[in-house]
Amino acid sequence: MKVVILKDAAEVAAYGAEIFKKQLLKKPDSVLGLATGSTPVALYNELIKLNQRGDISFKQVKSFNLDEYLGLEGDHPQSYRYFMNDKLFNHVDIDKAQTQVPPGNAEDPVAACQVYEQAISDAGGIDIQLLGIGRNGHIGFNEPSSSLASRTRVKTLTKATIDDNARFFAEGEYQPHLSITMGIGTILESKKVVLLATGESKAEAIKATVEGPLTAACPASALQMHKDAVLIIDEAAASEL
Ligand code: GLP
Predict the structure, then answer these.
(1) Based on C-alpha coordinates, what's the Rg of the chain?
(2) pTM over 0.80
(3) For the chain, what is the domain count?
(4) Is 9 among the domain residues?
(5) Confidence category of residue 236, pLDDT binned at 50, 70, 90
(6) Distance of CA 178 to the CA centre of its chain
């Protein structure tokens, strides 16, 4: 696992965008694994700029998102489908039919997880997977205690994660407690993994990921087993290393 420590969030986004740019130039029909949360937004803004300048194209890209809230329709403003359209897909030349987010409105969520896994494998697997990290070390919605070999499945969110994400929901608004998330095993099969973390609130999770034991107590520590994983973090997120 490679760790790149940069001054601030802007540098983290620019460095991450450069990796995605190289990937798209090398393989224009890349299969991208994408992430939500506030951290990747600055990287998405960089990619939008590069696309609008004509430096990169998403025309041949396929994408798979990590996770989605179960019980939200894709047009719900807090759904991750809505987030991806709003923060990236609506602003670049991607074919939206080639973008996949786990279906939060699936009638049979368990079956939908298997369909999602199959779709990833039919696409030839993920070339590059973008990740954020939760304060408790979660990746996607793989909360602490998730099996390190897990596949796409329905996962209950921890109270810590529900509280962390409550800021996105209005007072009194229904906030899902369940999600569909790629598993840790699914993520580890991506050819390349890029994890971004910024801010002091992520420092403990980054310490556990980089210096801690390989453990389901910190799902991101599974990246220690990946042969091409890079953590791009700012000085604040690196402050406990
Ligand atoms: C959510 C997402 C994760 C993300 C995490 C951190 O729980 N499911 O994929 O990494 O939030 O989000 P943020 O970047 O806003 O701190």
Answers:
(1) 17
(2) yes
(3) 1
(4) yes
(5) very high
(6) 17
Distances in whole angstroms, Cα of residue 198 to Cα of each of 10, 183, 227: 10, 23, 23
Q: Band the pLDDT of 63: cuts 50, 70, 90.
A: very high
| Residues flanking ligand 1, CB < 6 Å | 35-39, 66-67, 132-134, 140-141, 161, 165
Report which protein residue has its CA nearest ligand 1's atom 11: 37
Q: What is the per-residue pLDDT across 98-147, written as a single tens digit (0 to 9) for each?
A: 999 999 999 999 999 999 999 999 999 999 999 999 999 999 999 999 99
Q: Is residue 120 part of a domain?
A: yes
Q: Which of 159, 165, 178 to probe ligand 1 with, by most ligand atoms within 8 A of CB?
A: 165
Alpha-carbon separation of residue 231 from 98, 187, 209, 223 (angstroms): 27, 14, 10, 9
Q: Which residue has the tokens 């490679």?
A: 2
Q: Is-catalytic flag, 143?
A: yes
CATH of the domain at 85: 3.40.50.1360
* The pLDDT of residue 175: 93
Query: Any residues with CB less than 8 A from the CB of 2 and at least 6 apart, and which?
Result: 229, 230, 231
CA 154 → CA 37, 100, 141, 187, 201, distances in Å?
19, 17, 9, 15, 27
The answer to whether residue 190 is domain-embedded is yes
Let me know if residue 239 belongs to a domain. Answer: no
By residue range, what is the domain housing residue 52? 2-234
pLDDT tens string 152-184: 999 999 999 899 889 989 988 999 999 999 999
